[in-house]
Amino acid sequence: MSNLDRQATPTVCGGRGFVVAEPVRELLSPRHVQLGESTEVRRLLPNLGRRMVGAWAFVDHYGPDDIADEPGMQVPPHPHMGLQTVSWLHDGEVLHRDSLGSLKTIRPRELGLMTSGRAISHSEESPKPHARFLHGAQLWVALPDAHRNVEPHFQHHADLPTVTAPGLTATVILGELDGARSPGTAYTPIVGADLALTRGTVTRLPLDPDFEYAVLSMSGEAEVDGVPVLPGSMLYLGCGRTGLPLRAESDAELMLLGGEPFEEEIVMWWNFVGRTQDDIAQAREDWMNSDRFGTVRGYDGPPIPAPALPDVALKPRGRVR
């Protein structure tokens, strides 16, 4: 998914300077962003209070939207570099096309994982016809320097491992949780999991104390370590946890995001993750004037032009809050 903000500003992320080394409860409120003509998203990362969680660098939550009489998601071709995109749905379908020739309809609780590496472009749209409701999350994972120029590739996994406990089913989207590992390719120690809780559940989820974590509420009423987390908000939890207390006041669905704190400093601008201003400027130039990012075939509409670069210098400075 693209960052369609035409006034895109640089975000400096990474490094351990602002990682919280102990458990905390930091509630993050979303910023509302229009995505295309008909989809509004709630952007949780990057946030004024938190730039990254492990290698997770971008989180949008959208829906549930009634799109029965609407076109639904319509995101024209756009570029990515230096990151992975993770598509995760609870309702609806998204048709993915990319410059490698991939064409796949992603359905609820199936992993759509695109590794941009050095360069890729893709589009996302609600198919015709489509389901009445659209509800999901789109996330980016920053690639470490050793892998940020890998060959681009796309993976789709419909069968994902689960971790279960009374009242809890945790689907492992990326990385590893309690011994269950996703088949999706990960380049850093990371975890992403979908947590489905039934009403009245009180449980504790095992965690890795070396990871930092956050929980995004997708639906329902739940408490995370005693903090009520409403749909569309995210609770940052810091590091040093061996377990996470969960309580469901109703049937509830959450996303657990975590990983080892990202050591490197990065620059994130528009749909690019780089290390320097020159990386970003070159990527923008190549998207507008070369074939580096390839061509998405089959989408009915032109690609998205890149916004103008800001006048300020883009410098990586770590996890500036």
TrEMBL record:
Q: What is this protein called?
A: Pirin family protein
Q: List the residue ranges of the region (Disordered).
A: 298-321
For this chain's record, the cofactor binding note is:
Binds 1 Fe cation per subunit.
Q: Which organism does this record belong to?
A: Streptomyces nitrosporeus
Q: Which domain of life is it from?
A: Bacteria
InterPro entries for the chain? Pirin, Pirin_C_dom, Pirin_N_dom, RmlC-like_jellyroll, RmlC_Cupin_sf
- According to the entry, every stretch annotated as the Pirin N-terminal domain falls at 41-141
What's a single GO MF annotation on this record? metal ion binding
Residues that bind Fe cation, according to the entry?
A: 78, 80, 122, 124
UniProt KW Transmembrane keyword: no
* Pfam families the UniProt entry points to: Pirin (PF02678), Pirin_C (PF05726)
